[in-house]
Amino acid sequence: MTPALLDGFGRRIEYLRISVTDRCNFRCRYCMPLSGLDWIPRREILTYEEIARVVRELSALGLRRLRITGGEPTIRPDLERLIGMLRDIESVEDISLSTNGTRLAALAPALRAAGLDRVNISVDSLRPERIRSIARRNIAFDPVAAATAAEQAGLGPIKLNVVVMRGVNDDELLDLARLTLEHDWHVRFIELMPVGDLRAVTWEHVVASDEVLRSLASIGTLRPAAPPARGNGPARYYRFESARGSIGVITPMSHTYCDSCNRVRLTADGRLRTCLFGDEEIDLRTPLRSGLPLEPFFRTALSTKPKQHGLLQMKVGGLKALSQVGG
């Protein structure tokens, strides 16, 4: 029997986040510079067939859960084709998608038919003018309509991810939390992670999740709740009495959760990154295109996976922006 994928600290790796593109139709101030980045040349981007091979070889070693990310993954053409290829890998139990939601109404039915299970939608504001300000794009976008379309297509659970920024969107916490009273959605408040070249956000903009939870008490009592079905992440969940959905908090800054990390990341150009903010990554594209077995490279990468990230010590693993690895 093939040994499971374990890192040097005994953590079992069963979750892969797959970036299918480094490009995005937003320029969110906490995620990507306004001018964009030096885009990866197309020839260096993994094909869908190459991504599927990586997943097949990892699934034989215990990989069970996948998340498709970007940049913005829905701008890569024919994304449903990749979803279908991954769905055909027998041991894959869960496929999710992280998206800004702008193309979700159009794509959700096809993605669901191809085998996508669920979506996480970035919702940093409910106000049209503020959405434009945060995304730094002149767009007309309704995140509630996007979430509704995903729900109607049969995707679920629906998770809405809110990066909380002091003085930017922290005055909308109550409005966002109230969505859980009427919808079976899961609103997750994420502590801002200042990274690399993103000078528009600083440590002064960070709002600790404990502060967020205190502010929500004006709506009603929050009681601990079980996580939604098929969840992979580190969020802690709460629920208002009689609410259909739940509130989650994700705390990379105030309460790190590295001891239970079960994930690695595949970049759009085929590098296996073992920690979001670590320096450790290994080239898979070269052996992949040379026809070599990938298991030795997987295990070498995991042997260097750090015990915890270094963001609190201002170490970001060479990242210029979160968009480079899909968060």
Number of strands: 12
Uncertain stretches: 313-317
Strand content: 15-25%
Q: What helical percentage do the residues reach?
A: 25-40%
Determine and state the CATH class of the domain at 15-157 and 256-324: Alpha Beta
The side-by-side strand order for the widest beta sheet comes to: 7-8-9-6-5-4-3-2-1-10-11-12
Using the coordinates shown, work out and report the CATH topology of the domain at 15-157 and 256-324.
TIM Barrel
Q: What composes the largest sheet?
A: 12 strands, mixed
| Anisotropy-based shape | globular
Radius of gyration, CA atoms, in whole angstroms: 19 Å
Output the structural class: alpha/beta
Task: Describe the protein's architecture and organization.
The chain has a domain at 15-157 and 256-324: Alpha-Beta Barrel (TIM Barrel). It contains nine helices and twelve strands. The relative contact order is 0.17. The chain has a twelve-stranded mixed β-sheet. A hairpin with a 4-residue loop joins strand 10 and strand 11. The two termini are 33 Å apart. It has helices at residues 48-59, 79-87, 104-114, 128-135, 143-152, 173-182, 209-216, 285-289, 295-303; strands at 15-19, 65-69, 94-99, 118-122, 158-164, 185-191, 222-225, 236-240, 246-250, 263-266, 271-273, 281-283. With 327 residues, the chain is an alpha/beta fold. 25% of the residues lie in helices and 18% in strands. Residues 313-317 have low confidence and may be disordered.
